[in-house]
Amino acid sequence: MKINNLLKITLLSALMIMVAGCEDAYNPYPEFETVPHSLAKFKSGTPTSFLFGNNASKLEGDLQWITTDGKVKVVETDYYITWTESYLDKDGLPKTANHGKKKLKNSTDVGNQREAKSWSFTAAEVYSIFKDVKFDYGDTVGVRSVFGNPKDKDRSDKKYFTSNDKFTLTWAFKADDGRYFDTWSQGICSETVGSNCSLNFGVICVSNIAGTYTSTTTGTSTDDCCPTESTVTGEVTITSLGSGKYEISDFSAGLYQYWYEIYGIDGSYTSNTDKTKNKLRGDILDACDKISGAWVEPFAEPMKISGFSSPDVGVITYSWENGYGDKATVTLTKK
Q1: Alpha helices (H) in the chain, listed in sequence order
Q2: pLDDT confidence of 69, banded at 50, 70, 90?
Q3: What is the domain-level CATH number for residue 198?
Q4: How confident is the model at residue 307, as a pLDDT?
Q5: What are the two backbone dihedrals, phi and then psi, of residue 107, each rounded to the nearest 5 degrees?
Q6: Separation CA 157–CA 164 (nearest Å)
Q7: What angle do CA 291, 294, 296 make, to 5 degrees?
Q8: Is the domain of 133 the same as that of 233?
């Protein structure tokens, strides 16, 4: 009997230990680790995208780290940039090149929780971390430097980034206990009031080509009046209509009057400022230094303009062609 009682006591003790172990393993109220989250924003009244053609273009803002229970302290912040580029493949279909995520800078000036600390960076700084990036755009050229792409005429050593580029600024926190936080749930990033995990920005264009220009135009006519190539000089005025749209006083820059005065394109016609009656006048668009325009010319034929602006030197160069096949190249130099 004593042996049986001892065996029962032993078995009961073992069972109690197992149950206690199970209760610990399946505790429905686990203790969660504390995690800091964040809130970042651009500085009020400052740009929220780089300016096209300006490598010194700067973005500024501030970042604060937040902890709800005060059990974690951030001691360092790393800032990262992710860069993607839109392009057209060999079949003319839109594609996206992912140029990766790279560390931009580190800061130990993190302050206390909910204390906003400033950050800033320039287009040149972003270029410095991506300058060696290469990509295969799926054409005959193969892998090449993104900043040495012969098929991307917009990008150069004076224009690191273009309107095709999109960026995301993210950050990561190092805590005083050594933990590193660089990923948060979507709920924290987008659904928690007063919290975010990234800032998006791109490249915008500032257009300022309005003014008076001297012009040099060289072109050829399909009319019997003018069998040889002609060159004329003159003056052209470009007037701003807002948002990169302009009115040009004479797309032909004097060449129509030189060729077709006998057909009524005389001084009286060209001096008319009503573009519904003077079809040499029309609207052009400056989109990141790309000049374009299309309307019906004086003899009811469609006409198209295509060219580019070099605002750093005050020069605009474009070509035009009408439905008859008349065509010319115009160079405008700002006075």
Answers
A1: 2-25, 123-130, 186, 255-260, 267-270
A2: confident
A3: 2.60.40
A4: 94
A5: -140, 135
A6: 16
A7: 150
A8: no
